[in-house]
Specification:
single chain; mainly beta; 10-stranded antiparallel sheet; two-stranded antiparallel sheet; 3 helices; 14 strands; 37% strand; globular
């Protein structure tokens, strides 16, 4: 079985400044800040979260924290390719000592998550930050797609059902064909369902994001799929 933590989001009433798993706010860097830049726009990506690399899930490695970024959207700017692990419009930065393919700048703060609110007859946005309650659990070990197509419907459902939801670690629950970044092998770092999180992220049409960390704990990648 593959160890995981199911995520419950808890809205923070003050900035979280400890090196713990969290979503939104500003990153708590373990080393010199490495804020990635959008390849197309040349500006800072949006900070999504930081995930503590629990050795019980990811094994013992030099990396202790992974930071996820994606190029954000605005009314007059939209960038294609945020779904591609090598597209230059998302990044997973691992510290300490990690290596990455993104261009970065030594900025400690930048764009972050927000949620939509309604007030005075119109919709607006507010910055947000969330701590997490992580509930331990287990997923079935990953089985390749070419093997699963030989299964009965009951076997397939028994495998797929536990894979849903927002989680740290575990086995990815793909909504299209199985997809991993190049130059693996990779462990699932984070699965994020854009339709069930309390903040705004866009992964296409009702998409799910999949962040990965290499088995040596030194590299990270991200991709998303949608319906």
């Amino acid at each position: 079985m593959a160890r995981k933590y199911d995520i419950e989001f808890i809205e923070a009433d003050a900035p979280i400044t400890d090196p713990v798993t969290k979503f939104g706010g500003q990153p708590v860097w373990l080393e010199r800040p490495e804020w990635p830049l959008s390849r197309e726009l040349g500006r800072q990506m949006q900070f999504v979260c930081q995930i503590a690399l629990d050795p019980d899930v990811f094994g013992v490695s030099p990396g202790m924290m992974a930071y996820l970024f994606i190029t954000g959207e605005s009314e007059d700017e939209w960038v294609d390719g945020t779904w591609e692990p090598e597209g230059g419009e998302n990044a997973v930065i691992v510290q300490p000592g990690g290596t990455n393919v993104a261009e970065t700048v030594p900025e400690g703060e930048g764009p972050s998550l927000y949620r939509f609110v309604e007030g005075r007859g119109r919709e607006g946005t507010v910055p947000c930050e969330y701590s997490v309650d992580l509930q331990p659990g287990e997923d079935p070990e990953y089985v390749r797609e070419d093997e699963r197509v030989q299964w009965s419907e009951a076997e397939f459902e028994a495998y797929e059902e536990p894979l849903d939801g927002n989680k740290v670690g575990g086995t990815p629950g793909f909504i299209q064909a199985d997809e991993f970044p190049p130059a693996g092998p990779w462990r699932l770092l984070l699965q994020l369902d854009s339709m069930t999180v309390p903040f705004y992220v866009t992964f296409g049409d009702a998409g799910i994001g999949y962040a990965y960390v290499s088995e040596d704990g030194q590299r990270g990648r991200f991709l998303w799929q949608c319906y």
